[in-house]
Each structure stands twice: as structure tokens, then as C-alpha cells.
Amino acid sequence: MEIKFIKKENPNYNKKILIIGVFHGDEPQGEYFINSYLEKNKNNGKNALYFIPRLNNNNSRKNKNGVDLNRNFPTKNWVLGENNDYFGGKTPNSEPEVQFLVNLIDKNNFSAIITIHSPYKVVNYDGPGLDLAHKINNYLNYKVTDSIGYPTPGSFGTYCGVERKIPTITIEIDEQEKLEELNLKFHKIFDYLENEY
Fold first, then answer.
1. What is the pLDDT, as a whole number, of residue 136?
2. CA–CA gap between residue 110 and residue 167 (Å, rounded)
3. Smallest Cα–Cα separation from 144: which of 165, 167, 164, 172?
4. What is the mean pLDDT of the chain?
């Protein structure tokens, strides 16, 4: 897992914002949007953006250990579930990717966290993220919701948004939309986060 920064060297930023791509290995679009933005962006905006282009290096929903990273966080609602596509591991916080994120969040006072998923075409928010969800949705015109529509024990949104009170946004992209068009929208979202949020 690699973190890429914008404005890493300048300590005079207002906010730190974490942006994560490829939580699930079969949802690769986030890595494309992030790397495309980093190749072109030379701005020195007011906020520090921390990018993780690819969290999960496996090419399936679960990581190499067969765990859905988005069900492995040490939340109050974590449960030992069936070993299916949503298996949250034998214990919470068992996976190196999750430990990495927990440690990163412990060491940084992030003002907001964004993750990029597919395919539900919603902007999902956890914790105090409603206002930011609407700002992001100005670029996407998706449904804004506080629920993905099914239980998500041990999820990243619960861990960061609900339990730690960090505005946490899960952008579920529309897989039917052209990647190039979505990429332009994500550039605008990242610009907003760097310069205006």
C-alpha cells in the first residue's frame, strides 16, 4: 500500500483529506481516477490530500487472505460471519491493509475521508458527512444516502464516520458511465477537496 501526497512538504495546510481507491480488488476505477489526477495536478491548494490509489492488491472483492476489507474494521457491530464474499475475517482488524489504515487514521487528524467503490451510483455518507456528500454530488448527480441498503458490520464507514465522527464518504460510481467522463468529474471533486473544502 502506497500513500501519495499533494502538498506533503508544506505544513501550512488547513485540512488533511484521505482518498482511497480499490478497497475491493474487482472495483479498480478509483486507482485510475487517482493516478490520472496525480499525473496532471500541480496545484498547491489550501488542503493536504493523501491518496491511496490501491488498497487491495488482489483482483477480487476480497484480499489475498479471503477477507472483505470493508467488513474487517474493529467496530462495535463487527460480527464473525459466514465465509462468503462479505467475510469479515476471523477477528476484527486481522488484515494488514486494515491495520495500515487504522494506524494511519490514529496518527492523522483527517477532516474527511473519501473511498471510491462501484456500482450502486450513490454518494453514501457516514457520520457528519451529509454536507460534504451534497458538495461531492454536485459533480455526479447521484442519490445521496446514509445507507447502502443492507447491513455492513465492520465497515470502514462505521469505523471512521459513525464511531470516530470523521465525515466519511463512499462514492459508488455508475459503471455504465464512460470512464473518461467520470475521470473528469473526479478531477473536479479532487480539485474541490484540495482548494475549497
1. 98
2. 9
3. 172
4. 93
Which pLDDT does position 45 carry in this prediction? 82
How many beta carbons lie within 10 A of that of residue 95, not counting itself? Answer: 24
* Assigned C-alpha cell, 47: 488542503
C-alpha dihedral, 162 to 164 to 165 to 169, nearest 10°: -70
- Give residue 13's pLDDT: 81
Which domains does the chain possess?
Answer: 4-195 (3.40.630.10)
Going edge to edge, which strands form the sheet with 48-52? 4-6, 48-52, 16-21, 112-117, 168-172, 122-126, 143-145
DSSP 144: E
Positive or negative CA dihedral for 79, 157, 33, 121?
Answer: positive
Strand partners, 122: 143, 172
Q: In a 3-state reduction of DSSP, which class is residue 195?
A: helix
pLDDT below 70 — which residues of the chain?
Answer: 1-11, 42-43
Q: How does pLDDT run across 51-81, given as a tens digit for each residue?
A: 999 999 999 999 999 999 999 999 999 999 9
pTM of the prediction?
A: 0.94
Chain centroid to CA 141: 19
Q: Quick one: cell of 148? A: 447502502
**90 DSSP 8-state letter:** S
Neighbours of 188 (CB within 10 A): 15
